[in-house]
Specification:
homodimer; 370 residues; alpha/beta; eight-stranded parallel beta sheet; 17% strand; globular
Chain lengths: 370, 370
């Protein structure tokens, strides 16, 4: 896995670049649509490709449980299993220690889960997570990490951060022994404590991962807290490596993070909102169920060239949503994913044109919503 | 609307032909995927086209209620509203008198419904149904019909059949005054009474519709009863007009009906079964949730060239179904619709090659299922 910075904005730490993996390359800043269970919900791989996706995210924990590592191993890779030949990043299961915390017990050695599917118990060590990701053959593999639920005290955040560091060292060792051409990213933790973030970063940077992520944000903290932590941290992440902000995904958050030097993003928001009838547009969010769209022949977003906007009206999208038709989820997801990927392409073009700040200000001035 | 018979099988009344409408032509025998509410569930119009659809069915009753005739009128046609530019046939609402019979009251003048959506009351006359279909601008428009629930006595079936005839005359009169280039089909009723079927046919044939349908079958009767009614009736329908068997759709039923001279079919089975995980294949039905498919890398049907079979394994399809992913409904529907449309193409080729009986026997000998 390789990374090169291809352009830098003179007025801020924003940069654009290129990550090259064995499954192909993708341009940064990049947004990764979320395909937790080996499918970006409601899209075929072809629709995902046409919406502009170059890299997607899948989840180690979920795929380990279902269909199971052995099934995917039989196919040689997650790519072949799900019919997506381009790069895949897999999250580690660390986030599930947080999101499924009533069913997770953390110890020095690893984490013990009760399956959210059938209640069966199983353990995952940092080494197990590396081995599962080897079976998936994911191009970018996240280490198993841990963070305390927000709000957490300094000692709680420090404990989780130290465990994340110890697990990262073990995961790195296993990865370096077994890796066949993929990359591994570490995850900086430390909660809302700047000193802990700095400490976590120093420890992980010394292990020389292929990339660095910021975890434990967008988990309940305020925008001000999010920005206070990210602003000094982002530019300190190793310059020659991709920098990945995990799970943050409003357009506003992405603009802020890019401005401070982050390169990669993932979020369920565009796809989940699509299924709930909340659509992104250059003028802000649109709630398609609103009566005002009932007979509106205009496309959802006149500035959008996606399949949905090229072929269907707001009135039809509203009809599908009100009628709870599956096609509602499909067309809405195509649009929202396209909106995000087009947004990232515009960001990259702005950076390489030395116009990122102008782009950001212009975007935010139009992006108001209903 | 025009129809020509292009080939006849020497050994039976099977024939192939071509229906030409203002929205394009389609070859017969034809299967029409069902798009009740202005969407063939789980497919984009492009996927529907790629699966091989040349004509689809939508429903007057459902579209009248939602989004409402006025909304679609604003778009000029249902085609433009739903993004499907090829031919559309609209059913009349007659079937809903049967399927929603607790909320429908029939009188000489028409039918009074309580909406299945919000309980509001409204009336539909045979003329109303013509006017709504004019607003939809559907290429083939079915008259409002009526049939008694199975099992029905001779007097019950006779009464419904006579009402169907009277309504057909009124619908025809309205259609001939207002039509702009579309076709109108009558519906032969009479239940399981051969004499009533014959009487209904004679009455309707005299009104010179563009096509003739057989209604009131596949509503609970046995296969033997279905065949007893259809076998003598089908070849008696006007030879120079398309003959449409409404709502029947197992492959076995279609083969039987084609052999007796029917040309057009619709059924929710391929799409509904797809969503329930029952898939059609040249070897019979496959229940994709079965454990045996868990790690099976083979396509669902090795004889199939659809997008699903070209790109995905049984193991992946099972994973999606078990995980209740939307993509399960999508890929399964693509396959089942393609299977049906490919089946119809093979039937047409067999007829034009004078091999229909051989094709039927060969198909049925392989089509066994799990």
């Amino acid at each position: 896995m390789q990374f090169e910075v291809t352009a830098r904005d003179r007025r801020c730490p924003a940069r654009s670049g290129r990550v090259t993996t064995k499954s192909g390359a993708f341009a940064t800043p990049a947004f990764m649509p979320v395909g937790t269970a080996g499918t970006v919900k409601a899209l075929t791989p072809r629709q995902l490709d046409e919406a502009g996706a170059q890299v997607i995210l899948a989840n180690t924990y979920h795929l380990f449980l279902r269909p199971g590592t052995d099934v995917i191993r039989k196919f040689g890779s997650l790519h072949r299993f799900m019919g997506w030949e381009q790069p895949i990043l897999t999250d580690s299961g660390g986030f599930q220690i947080f999101s499924l915390r009533d069913n997770a017990r953390v110890s020095e050695s690893g984490v013990r889960f009760k399956s959210h599917l059938d209640g069966s118990a199983f353990s995952l060590t940092p080494e197990d997570v590396v081995d599962i990701q080897s079976a998936l053959d994911s191009d970018i593999q996240m280490v198993l990490d841990h963070f305390a639920p927000h709000p957490a005290s300094h000692p709680q955040d420090e404990k989780a951060m130290r465990l994340t560091g110890a697990w990262a060292a073990r995961a790195r060792e296993r990865f370096l022994k077994t890796n066949k051409g993929n990359g591994q990213f570490a995850i900086v933790q430390g909660g809302l404590h700047e000193d802990l973030r700095e400490c976590s970063l120093r420890e992980l940077a010394a292990m020389d991962f292929e990339g660095y992520a910021v975890g434990g944000l967008s988990v309940g903290e305020s925008t001000a807290e999010f920005r206070r932590i990210l602003k000094p941290l982002a530019p300190e992440l190793p310059d020659g490596k991709p920098r990945y902000l995990m799970g943050s995904g409003t357009p506003e958050d992405i603009l802020f993070a890019v401005e401070n030097g982050m390169d990669m993003f993932d979020c369920v928001m565009p796809s989940r909102n699509a299924r709930n009838g909340t659509l992104f547009s250059s003028r802000g969010k649109v709630r398609i169920k609103n009566e005002r769209h009932k007979a509106d022949p205009r496309p959802l977003d006149e500035a959008c060239a996606c399949y949905t906007c090229r072929n269907f009206s707001r009135a039809y999208l509203r009809h599908l949503f009100i009628s709870r038709e599956i096609l509602s989820s499909i067309l809405n997801t195509i649009h929202n994913i396209h909106f995000y990927l087009d947004f990232m392409a515009k960001i990259r073009y702005a950076i390489s044109s030395q116009k990122f700040i102008d782009f950001k200000e212009n975007f935010l001035s139009l992006y108001k919503g209903e």
